[in-house]
Amino acid sequence: MLHVVEHPLIAEELTKLRDPGCPSPEFRQRVRRISSLMVPSVTANLETEVVECATPLEITSGVRVSRGIILVPILRAGLGFLDGFLDLIPQASVAHIGVARNEVTLEAEPYYLKHPPTIGEHEIIVLDPMLATGGSAIHAVRTLHAAGARHLRFACLVASPQGVAALESAFPEIHIHTACLDRCLNDRGYILPGLGDAGDRLFGTC
Ligand code: URA
Description:
Helices cover about 30% and strands about 30% of the residues. It has six helices and 13 strands. The radius of gyration is 18 Å and the shape is globular. The two termini are about 35 Å apart. This is Uracil phosphoribosyltransferase. Its EC number is 2.4.2.9.
């Protein structure tokens, strides 16, 4: 299920982010702002339960989010998407997953995974700024399922129709949240119009 998070401030930030003249420090700040602006939509349907709470005057009822939250940035570009989520969900744990392309088979393969042992009891939000072919996202979700994750959603900055279709076809139940659905992929797997290589632009390696 695809959710495009539409908001004028996100749209303006994204416009500035696409500009090839946007330097890395500014790029990082803008990605952080967009990810924070996405948090209310990405988390809008979290399950909650009623709890008793005390005010200085009396006992009343309040709300608690039922499950703890684990944020899972896909290395490396997902790291740039993490801080904006942590700004609004500081109580979240952070798991890390590394997915790289095997240069022989050309398949994406997970090479690193570190998560809290109680992963099955948590709400998992997988983070990757670019959902391009969907290969990394599919391998990340498959690996997290194999590790016991059950309540999982995916958030990105820019998605391609091909990436959305691939992820939905592999995991029809998954909710995909993106700030923008772009037009297509080019023959090198880059999203068009896109914003180039998000990892390189975030970390100044271009
Ligand atoms: N990864 C990126 O960083 N950019 C794309 O356009 C596609 C994949």
